Amino acid sequence: MKILNAGQIRALDAYTIKNEPISSADLMERASQAFVNWFINCFDVSKSVSIFCGKGNNGGDGLAIARLLHAKGFQVRVFVIEYTDKESDDFKQNLERLAGNLQVQSIYESHAMPELHSDQIIIDALLGSGLSRPVAGLLGDVIEHVNGATGIIISIDIASGLYVDKPNEKSDTIVKPDHTVTFQLPKLAFMMPQNAEFTGDWHVVDIGLDKRFIEETLSPYYYTDKPAGEALTKKRGKFSHKGTFGHALILAGRYGKMGAAVLSSRACLRSGAGLLTVHVPECGYEILQISLPEAMLSIDPNQRNITELPELSSYSAIGIGPGIGQEPLTVRVLDELLEQISTPLIVDADGLNILSKHPDLIDKLPEKTILSPHPKEFQRLAGDSANEFERLELARNFAKKHNVVIILKGAYTAVILTNGDVHFNSTGNAGMATGGSGDVLTGILTALLAQKYTPEDAAIFGVYQHGLAGDRAAERKTKTAMIASDIIENLGW
Ligand SMILES: NC(=O)C1=CN([C@@H]2O[C@H](COP(=O)(O)OP(=O)(O)OC[C@H]3O[C@@H](n4cnc5c(N)ncnc54)[C@H](O)[C@@H]3O)[C@@H](O)[C@H]2O)[C@@H](O)CC1
Ligand SMILES: Nc1ncnc2c1ncn2[C@@H]1O[C@H](COP(=O)(O)OP(=O)(O)O)[C@@H](O)[C@H]1O
Ligand SMILES: [K+]
């Protein structure tokens, strides 16, 4: 799924109206109907509804939704906020259509806010994708009032006050919805952790905007939903043998951190690698042999740390980093690896921390190396950013400059390709915020690279499957109780 900016969404609306063709009022009706279909799936008529409308098209949606919900038997109150004389045509038309059906209450002043009971559902139709400046005055007071209510809040298209595609100031007044029901495409703002309280759970409803226009509109932002994720699955051929699926090498673990080696290695085998060799310090010998008999070992001469690079010629992909520490001899191993490697590579965890401390090594990264930092590791690698939009730009520039694939981990993990395209992941949950989850991802990615997925596909697909396994684990164990091993146990495609 593509993610478009506010200007492109406007153009998409206009194109659909002109080319379908459909009147703008009918398109609004279709959007409102799509919202109502979602709504009646979630709530029954025992709930009463209060709808707060602005005077643009988002407000127009609110009025149309009021009429449609009223017709379904819901008890509906409609409030129009009189912050301006300017009204959109479709707003006006829907206001007229309400007359006789429902009484509209105007709010002129901040001290005259309606009472909101906890069993009421509040629909926020104040401002949508047309937001052009921070909310102030009466509208701001209405938003504060709505945010102070205890009932469920649902924003139409986007929370009022939230920009579609650029950062808000911390001081901005923005609705804090429990749900956002957004039209046609997810919005860039929803991907940013800083906006979590301004999106709630968000749901995309199809309003029939022009598919070809979406396809042909250039955007660097994509959302890896189920169809996009599943499209990358490679089938295992009937006559395949273990040689078909590559021989992965993982360099991981040191004294006290051997779990990282076990987790990444097990995840690698569970992700379909034909063969796996794990290079570990001597202290890892028994641990690995006993916990993961399917893996072969390459034993470092050093008891506690990785200090020597194994011979690389038999491997088809390499993963390095989980739990390796940053001892000088380990740094040298990474340096030698970068000099010698001729296969796809993923660098994670301490591997990334080493790169941060030795930036000369960044220039040695083979093209399309995958780097998988969490936010802190990325900050060490690329520096500070004022907000998450800026961080994303920093990561896009880093990926382009160094010709690497970056996996910026977190909720909606961003996979950033060497051309700067960003694929936000749709799977995963907060139960994955537990030690070792990242090591599991390293193993998955090493396995996919060994199976000849391109680095781009490996990153998008691996992140998607990692999150999906996390979702299955959360369902079986709960988000609280799940641990990284549960993610591995739920891998499979
Ligand atoms: N035909 C269409 O274009 C469709 C539009 N739809 C709805 O229309 C919305 C976009 O409509 P609009 O472009 O009218 O945008 P809004 O409803 O967000 O309103 C924009 C208006 O508010 C003003 N405004 C912007 N920021 C303000 C602020 N901080 N304080 C006060 N006024 C402010 C603008 O100057 C403009 O007049 C979408 O979010 C969606 O809800 C849907 O009905 C689908 C179809
Ligand atoms: N709230 C969340 N929602 C979705 N995924 C998450 C969330 N928190 C963490 N994750 C995922 O879990 C993994 C954690 O990786 P990382 O921080 O490297 O963990 P560790 O270093 O403990 O292995 C990442 O893939 C990240 O995307
Ligand atoms: K809204």
From TrEMBL:
AMP binds at K409, G410, A411, Y412, T413, G438. Its cofactor is Mg(2+); K(+). GO terms for biological process: metabolite repair; nicotinamide nucleotide metabolic process. Residues 225-493 form the YjeF C-terminal domain. K(+) binds at N58, D124, S160. Its EC number is 4.2.1.136, 5.1.99.6. Binds 1 potassium ion per subunit. GO terms for molecular function: ADP-dependent NAD(P)H-hydrate dehydratase activity; ATP binding; metal ion binding; NAD(P)HX epimerase activity. Residues 9-215 form the YjeF N-terminal domain. Keywords: ATP-binding, Isomerase, Lyase, Metal-binding, Multifunctional enzyme, NAD, NADP, Nucleotide-binding, Potassium. (6S)-NADPHX binds at residues 57-61, 128-134, 157, 260, 323, 374, 439. It catalyses: (6S)-NADHX + ADP = AMP + phosphate + NADH + H(+); (6R)-NADHX = (6S)-NADHX; (6R)-NADPHX = (6S)-NADPHX; (6S)-NADPHX + ADP = AMP + phosphate + NADPH + H(+). Homotetramer. In the N-terminal section; belongs to the NnrE/AIBP family. Belongs to the NnrD/CARKD family. Catalyzes the epimerization of the S- and R-forms of NAD(P)HX, a damaged form of NAD(P)H that is a result of enzymatic or heat-dependent hydration. This is a prerequisite for the S-specific NAD(P)H-hydrate dehydratase to allow the repair of both epimers of NAD(P)HX. Catalyzes the dehydration of the S-form of NAD(P)HX at the expense of ADP, which is converted to AMP. Together with NAD(P)HX epimerase, which catalyzes the epimerization of the S- and R-forms, the enzyme allows the repair of both epimers of NAD(P)HX, a damaged form of NAD(P)H that is a result of enzymatic or heat-dependent hydration. This is Bifunctional NAD(P)H-hydrate repair enzyme.
